[in-house]
Design a protein that fits this description.
With about 500 residues, the protein is an alpha/beta fold. The chain folds into two domains: about 270 residues, Aldehyde Dehydrogenase, Chain A, domain 1 (3-Layer(aba) Sandwich); about 190 residues, 3-Layer(aba) Sandwich (Aldehyde Dehydrogenase, Chain A, domain 2). About 40% of the residues lie in helices and about 20% in strands. It has 16 helices and 23 strands. Strands 15-16-17-14-13-19-20 form a seven-stranded mixed sheet, sandwiched between helices. A six-stranded mixed sheet has the order 10-9-8-11-12-22, with helices on both faces. Strands 1-5-4 form a three-stranded mixed sheet, with helices on one face. Helix 1 packs across helix 8.
Length: about 500
């Protein structure tokens, strides 16, 4: 069995804690590797290496740092198929979805090529008599990121690319469920010209997370995962004086107005609700048709589309719609919530509980589910399911539909499907959610805008990628400067009298 490593100081390093986690093939249920779980001493060593390497990297001018990012983009494109296959093998995503994971991270790297422009400060000439004032953006030092299993390529690049472009060193603690791609990314960054020690990958669990949060040298921490853990990391990190950004859970609503193109809305819900087996923080898990007639038409359109979904391993070809969920525990939690929906009175229109894939009986596959007549007091509405389960909550008016999205504790993403520009504009202006789609089901911003939710979906003042990333990974220093009169006044041929 393969034994994975950490990546410290430009080399693969075996774990010394004696603790390991199993890495599964989600399609077969088999353990395919084991990954070391770092202790505090191993984390401290990685931080020490990073701290020694960082000052020299920060002294490299931004244009040269950007050239490393340019080369890294070339290498990502070169190894796209290799990265996607490794990602699919550990996560379970289809190959096109895995390639998309890499691609969306690559786009943030492309944005970071603009570091020379993004790191420019400000200058005021003659702020006072003979006084100039200017600001500089400077690197924090050693930074860290704790990333989730569901995007093992994209989210690490969302964090380490801007951090490193700003002149920081970066400690990456990826998910122990699918750690191979982050290790591959670290190798590619050094092949692109990044000095050894600037990007470290330290695998681990809570012990490694706590070591990051408590280490005095680490200046900032980024996190993506569940809301309870986001709250924990935000609180502990901030209390230790670190700059922290945490992104948590989601329950994303899609409002379907009576005038919407129902085929377009149904197609959008299929991709947004069942793609990646629903394991996306921006997945649409709640459809809110306005009016019973709209709801009936929507469900009628959804049923044949859902029944036609092809579920299987990534090796079954590119026409597979989605694969397994990541672990047996994830599958069990999804099915438990489905049972609660049935018990609490929701109408299970499509029942995927008995789904069984011949030849992959031990895999972590979950069949598609569709609930209708879900109410907001049900667990399947209140909780993030993170699986291929779509709930239809019928609203009798636009205001009721808007209120559902606004009253929910999560505020990551939402969407409205309508032909009415006035309704769309009102929705975008009023809804208290961070990312809004208008006839777009998954409104993840492109790399030059920022990604972030509201309410219990995000903790911290700055979003991920875009301009906010360059603010998060730098400190602003402001200089007020005055120079005394000097040689420009010309030579003096006599002693000046005392004043």
């Amino acid at each position: 069995m393969q034994e994975l490593t950490h990546y410290i100081g430009g080399a693969h390093v075996k774990g010394t804690s004696g603790r390991f986690a199993d890495v599964y093939n989600p399609a077969t249920g088999e353990v395919q590797a084991k990954v070391p779980l770092a202790n505090a001493a191993e984390m401290a060593h990685a931080v020490e290496v990073a701290a020694k390497a960082q000052p020299a990297w920060a002294a490299v001018n931004p244009q040269r740092r950007a050239r490393v990012m340019m080369k890294f983009v070339d290498l990502l494109n070169r190894d796209m198929d290799k990265l996607a296959e490794a990602l699919s093998r550990e996560h379970g995503k289809t190959l096109p979805d895995a390639a998309g994971d890499v691609q969306r991270g690559l786009e943030v790297v492309e944005y970071c090529i603009g570091a020379p422009q993004l790191l420019k400060g400000e200058f005021t000439d003659s702020a006072g008599p003979g006084i100039d004032m200017y600001s500089m953006r400077q690197a924090l030092g050693v930074t860290a990121g704790i990333t989730p299993f569901n995007f093992p390529a994209m989210i690490p690049m969302w964090m380490f690319a801007p951090a490193i472009a700003c002149g920081n060193a970066f400690i990456l603690k990826p998910s122990e469920r699918d750690p191979s791609v982050p290790l591959m990314l670290a190798e590619l960054m050094e092949e692109a010209g990044l000095p050894k020690g600037i990007l470290q990958v330290v695998n681990g669990d809570k012990e490694a997370v706590d070591a990051i949060l408590d280490h005095p040298v680490i200046q900032s921490v980024g996190f993506v995962g569940s809301t309870p853990i986001a709250e924990y990391i935000y609180g502990r990190g901030c209390s230790n004086g670190k700059r922290v950004q945490c992104f948590g859970g989601a329950k994303n609503h899609m409002i379907i107005m009576p005038d919407a193109d129902m085929d377009q809305a149904a197609d959008a819900l299929i991709g947004a609700g069942y793609g990646a087996a629903g394991e996306r923080c921006m997945a649409i898990s709640v459809a809110v048709p306005v009016g019973d007639e709209t709801a009936d038409r929507l469900v009628e359109k959804l049923v044949p589309r859902i029944e036609a979904l092809k579920v299987g391993p990534y090796t079954a070809g590119k026409d597979v719609d989605y694969g397994p969920v990541v672990t047996a525990a994830a599958k069990a939690n999804i099915l438990k919530l489905v049972e609660s929906g049935v018990d609490q009175g929701a109408e299970l229109v499509i029942d995927g509980r008995d789904f069984n894939l011949q030849g992959y009986e031990d895999g972590f596959f979950v069949g598609p589910h569709l609930f209708d007549r879900v109410t907001k007091d049900m667990d399947i509405y209140k909780k993030e399911i993170f699986g291929p389960v779509l709930s239809v909550v019928r609203a009798q008016s636009y205001e009721e539909a808007l209120g559902l999205a606004m009253d929910h504790e999560y505020g990551n993403g939402t969407a409205i499907f309508t032909r009415d520009g006035d309704a769309a504009r009102d929705f975008a202006n009023r809804v208290n959610v961070g990312m809004i789609g208008i006839n777009v089901p998954i409104p993840v911003p492109l790399a030059y805008h920022t990604f972030g939710g509201w309410k219990k979906s995000a903790f911290g003042d700055l979003n991920q990628h875009g301009p906010d990333a360059f603010k998060f990974y730098t400190r602003t220093k402001t200089i007020t400067s005055r120079w005394p009169s000097g040689i420009k006044d010309g030579a003096a041929f006599n002693f000046k009298p005392m004043d």
